[in-house]
Amino acid sequence: MITENVIIKDWRKIDISFGLIYPNKYTLGMSSYSIRLLYFLINSFDNIACERIFLPDNLYIKFPASKDYSSKNNLRSLENKVLPEDFDILGFSLHFENDFKNVLWILEKAEIPITFQERLKMISKDKAQFPLLIAGGPVVTSNPIPLSKFFDILFIGDSEQNLKYFFDLYQVYNIQKIQFKEFLERAKNIEGLFIPALQNNAKRVILKNLDDSPTPIFQLISNQSSVESIFENYFFIEINRGCPFKCKFCISSFHNHPFRNRSYENIINSIQKSIKYSKFETISLIGSCVSSHPKFEQICEYIIDNGKRLAVPSIRVEHLTQNIITIFEKAEIKTITIAPEAGSERLRYNLGKKIANEKILSILAQIKDSQIKNVKFYFLIGLPNEKDEDIDAIINLLKSINRLGFRKNSLRVNINPFIPKLNTPYEKETTFYLDENLPKLTKKYQKLDKELKNIESIKLRFKNFKSIIKNARLQAMISLGNKQVSDLLLEYYKDGATFSTLQKAEKELKFSLNDYLLKIKECYSPWII
Fold first, then answer.
1. Has residue 438 been placed in a domain?
2. Where are the alpha helices (H) located in 369-409, listed in sequence order?
3. Span 76-124, pLDDT tens digits
4. Which of 18, 47, 63, 478 has a CA between 20 and 30 Å from the CA of residue 351?
């Protein structure tokens, strides 16, 4: 596989080496705009070499790493094949709670002590040297406490503004002008840096003007052609950040507020430069609500008129006008992704999505009559105040959409359990994850499967309900976790990172997840942004 625009620097001519880690497989990591942006940003410093590290693609990962007998040589950077422990800094970009166990696997496989207390002790006593461990991303901004046992520094919010200050300070420490503890003391004064060893108060950093976040002009593009690598061949442009609609469950609305649009002029300039300097076929617009950009239609038209294919993430249903559908037809888009979230208007309005079923059906009738052949849906179950009739409402809405005449398997339906996220209006809504209510979630899935699986136009994208629910409960625990949860997760990892070992860890630590979720429900919060 050949990848264009890889940046390989001569380590003899740099001051700082930075291992950028996405704790999952390469194909997932390179589908992340954050990885592309950070790779570009950090390498823009002449004295810093930033190289990427992912989980090994072709290996079965066994937990913990101490019982995984694959060679640690499989875990090297892509650019210069450097081992993680040989970098000055290891920076993790964390987007999903369930990648937590992968973080610990990477550290242990690299023979780096997992907790910051272990590393501090060895640094003070034995003058040992380890990479500085830092992390950022939506999981960290939402709630860094479950991760604070393992990292030296956690970045809260947008990182573009404070990276230079951080690297300048690290350079002072790197040339040994100050001790490690003094480095941490100084680091706590940089806005948005949470230092677990110091338990400082860190406020979320907000990049006020999105034009100040550079669009990476030289993006990593693979020549590999496969379903898995499709996003690697896309050129990403972030056109807005945050979301103006403030749906009560959504971390983007509350952890990335205020809603900000990149200027039209900046976007067009980035497109022009990217066409000049990179070889690619598709431009993908990035943002939690791209269709809320005031120049959304003009941006789409400009991309198409310049001979490039257009890709968009999920789009607000109410924004799908006939004109936008026509633009998507012109762009040869074959699948549109929408997220009604609920089948009943009552629940949907409570979430913050104030669109009627009649309007949804009207829009989908227009899509059915267009050249766009597929619609991907996202629904949530286990929502606050959800009743049995709300599950019936999902079924009835999808049956009504089916009657519009969509072809076989053209309605791809994803139904996920609602996961409460800290620092959102629904952070206390843990009801369906309490022990007595977990069987109710399973029954909801069983009913949805029974009623929808034999409808020809519908392709269900959920299987193994019990595993889905257990995974969701684990995500909820990490999302809402405190230091006790951090201890629990470490034991869970050491015992093999399975659902049964999680229960074992609960017993060993005399920790009740059920009681903890009740505590959250009663307004306890481990972290406030």
1. yes
2. 388-402
3. 999 999 999 999 999 999 999 999 999 999 999 999 999 999 999 998 8
4. 478
